[in-house]
Amino acid sequence: MSTLLENHIVELLQERNEKAISLLYENYSDTLYGVAFKVVKNEALAQDVLQESFVKIWKKADTYDPTKAKLFTWLFRITRNTAIDKLRSGKKKIEKEIQIDVSDVYKLGIDGINPDSIDMQENLEKIEDKYRIVLEALFFEGMTQQEASDELDIPLGTIKSRLKIGLRELRKIYVEPIILLILLNLIS
Amino acid sequence: MKDKIKDFLETDLLENYLLGTTTELEKQKVERYIAMHPEVRKTYNKLQENLEEFAKSYALKTPEGLKDKIITTIKAQNKTKKKFMSYAIAASFVAFLFAVATYFFYNENKNLQEENSVVTNQIKLLEADMKERLEDVRNQFIVLNNPQTKKFKVRGNNKGKNLKAVAYVNPVKKLSYINLQNLPNLAEGECLQMWAEVNGEMINLGIIKDAGNKDNLLALPYGENAVGYITIEPEGGNETPTVDNIVANISY
Description:
The structure holds two protein chains of two kinds.
Chain A: H1 4-14, H2 19-40, H3 43-59, H4 71-98, H5 118-125, H6 129-139, H7 145-152, H8 156-168, H9 170-187
Chain B: H1 2-10, H2 13-19, H3 24-36, H4 38-56, H5 66-145, E1 150-155, E2 164-170, E3 175-182, E4 190-198, E5 201-207, E6 217-220, E7 227-234, E8 246-251
Antiparallel strand pairs in B: 1-2, 2-3, 3-6, 4-5, 4-7, 7-8
Helix pairs in contact in B: 3-4
């Protein structure tokens, strides 16, 4: 379901109107920056990623097909891939420089929590850890399901089902409790 | 069909497609399923919404000034692109002009080369012709001025009473010439042809064309005891002399 705002931005993008960038930034930059930061775990790098992603979004605007993906899905793909590429090229450099063990590279965990994102993190805590870890590994660490299975020491089948449940039932897992909380607050 | 859709949803193709990590083949398959089956489409849309929701939960406040930086970068790139485009157009135009000019000069060069070879050939022919004529004039000079040159008067027989000619023969230089002074009257469709019998062989010396030019000397092939003949032949000349039509013979 596309909103009016989304349609408007898409129109502007396809007309190559620079206003589109401004609107995109106002509506999506925080989320995309959060995604970039989650992947690269470094503010300066995340800013670079966001900038590169916006340039790509602007350049590739004519390849966006609204019938195939929501605007956000498209923006997310570009930002995620840019961030993962950035991380990999950075890692290559580090590997060359100090030859660290590969096993250190995909270290998972909640390192790098930003004070600004604590509220969000609280919401996120409501997704059960077992789903969140899988989703993060696949979405932000750029792992394939096989890599996630190896890294997290979880069978591939379980990774698949957790991804599915985690993503498909996301609302049930964490949106509904929030609504419940809001309702409870209203009642009390 | 239901099972097919269920099987499809069981795989993680849809999730991979959402992240853009499918192969091109898988991508086509997923897009086909989304287009054809409302149930798959619904699931995909749900996944998209959930992804946005999930991603939003990680949102971070972007630092001050980043927006301006990004917009400046994009505007600068647009300008460079426009600049590049105008340079590209200019370059294409120059390239086009160059191509046209190249073609023009190539053609011009080709024409000039052809003309050059024609002119060269003409010069060669002229040169050869000049040499031949010079040689001829030199020989005429030698024959006429040499004291050893014998001069024969030639007169026509009954068939060509008007024929008068003088033959010059120089046995030392081995040269002989004939000067036709007067030609017999010819009927229409006839011409005079000269022959020489040298060492028993009859040689065609050609048709006498410019008989009117009395100063002209015609070269005869030289031979010991050679005999020259003038015959009347049908217009255009003959391959062998018609003996009956001999109007004069010149022994030299």
